[in-house]
Automatic annotation (TrEMBL):
The lineage of its organism: Eukaryota, Sar, Alveolata, Dinophyceae, Suessiales. It comes from Symbiodinium pilosum. Residues 1-20 are annotated as: Disordered. This is Uncharacterized protein.
């Protein structure tokens, strides 16, 4: 991306012209600064200038960020449909999943290692919630399925201090409502031997579910050998499984899961609307905590 950049404060940015005719323009947004931008306003802004209106491709120039946070919720279905239409899985991956999975199945995503597999789940009925409470400021880092509790300050201390308690993925799976025709649940994870996965497996087996993982289906897939367990091929195949599942229980935050949720939203899966809303609400709370700017303006300079 040499030759162009975005500069500015939280309230405005300056779009720098690309130095060469073959270079692209950056969409002037920053994931840690801008929230809920109306895509139509951004488009109208670019069309005010004849030179900007002729730009064939504008790109998002950051290595991270959730478009569900950057752009206004009124534009989400349009953006999701555009992404799905113009960035698609190879048909052979979709067909492979159909060839090995049962007609009806559900999927769970356990993102582990750099994440804690916190479920994206409507858990208010179980005493957990999602909120921005100044009394519990430490809870806003991961504000999904949490509740405030008092815990000892130290191992030998009698002083109680506020601390967050998270709903575990196993607790969410135990409360997860599934249609009667679903008898198989696939666990997509980067760490199949983690205690979190083992606990989820125990809960599902107690519910008389067949539990499948990559190790269950990979021998039946003709994708060659030598791919690591957490490699790209495995990740793509597990995303395809999660997208096609009748029901899906994501963990969040996870960009992997957000890709799945986007495509399930376009496919009009029964649980997609609610999960998209839960994700957006969480991102909005994060934006409030980081003082993300909801009234963004743009400037153009040579």
């Amino acid at each position: 991306m040499k030759g162009w950049r975005v500069t500015g404060e939280r309230s405005a940015a300056t779009i720098k012209r690309p130095k060469g005719p073959g270079q692209r323009w950056l969409i002037p947004v920053q994931p840690d600064r801008n929230c809920s931008i109306h895509f139509g306003r951004l488009q109208a802004h670019m069309q005010l200038r004849e030179d900007l209106a002729q730009i064939p491709v504008a790109v998002f120039g950051n290595g991270w960020g959730y478009w569900q946070s950057l752009f206004h919720r009124d534009d989400h279905k349009t953006i999701a449909k555009f992404i799905t239409e113009h960035s698609s899985f190879k048909q052979r991956y979709i067909d492979m999943v159909k060839s090995v999975m049962p007609k009806h199945f559900a999927a769970v995503h356990c993102r582990l290692g750099d994440r804690e597999a916190i479920p994206l789940f409507n858990c208010s009925a179980f005493g957990f919630g999602m909120g921005l409470d100044e009394t519990w400021p430490m809870m806003t880092k991961n504000s999904i399925c949490m509740r405030p509790v008092l815990k000892p300050k130290g191992k030998t201390s009698k002083e109680l201090v506020p601390a967050p308690e998270f709903m575990s993925m196993a607790q969410a799976v135990a409360a997860w409502e599934l249609p009667e025709e679903i008898k198989t649940v696939y666990i997509a994870t980067n760490r199949p031997k983690d205690p979190v996965v083992k606990n989820v497996t125990k809960v599902l087996e107690a519910r008389k579910m067949q539990v499948w993982t990559w190790e269950t289906i990979s021998p039946r897939l003709k994708i060659g050998t030598g791919a690591p367990r957490d490699g790209t091929v495995t990740s793509i195949m597990e995303q395809s499984v999660a997208i096609q599942a009748d029901r899906f229980l994501p963990s969040f935050p996870s960009s992997w899961g957000s890709v799945v949720l986007t495509r399930r939203l376009v496919a009009e899966k029964p649980d997609a609307e609610e999960q998209h809303e839960l994700m957006v609400r969480n991102l909005e709370l994060w934006g409030q905590k980081t003082k993300c700017n909801f009234n963004y303006t743009w400037n153009v300079s040579d």
